[in-house]
Amino acid sequence: MTSWGSDLRVEMIGDEILVTLPQSHYAVTYYKPKNSNQLLAKRISDKDDPRIPMTGAEFLAKAWKLANNKAREVGWIKARGWA
């Protein structure tokens, strides 16, 4: 059995970060508005895919983490330090 969370794909397309789960209809696009220190989502998959043992909410939670990691990697946002 596969670990669906580890199968998510992250790619930069211009000034957007696309996160998808291949062989499903799960996808979400993130972008960083000017003068913002966080990502916003658009084109969000809003229905569960009955073929996949992961809910849409679970996908979005994992996608958000991956997109934020990619945004830090490319310098869009900075890691938050804990005091």
Shape: elongated
Residues in β-strands, percent = 15-25%
Helix and strand run? EEEEH
| Weakly predicted, low-confidence segments | none
Total helical segments: 1
Strand order of the largest sheet: 1-2-3-4
Mean residue pLDDT: 88
| End-to-end Cα distance | 40 Å
Indicate the radius of gyration in whole angstroms: 13 Å
- The percent of residues in helical segments reads 10-25%
Number of self-contained structural domains: 1
Which secondary-structure class do the elements indicate?
alpha+beta
- Number of distinct beta strands: 4
Specify the biggest β-sheet: 4 strands, antiparallel
Topology:
Elements: E1 9-13, E2 16-20, E3 27-31, E4 40-42, H1 56-73
Antiparallel strand pairs: 1-2, 2-3, 3-4
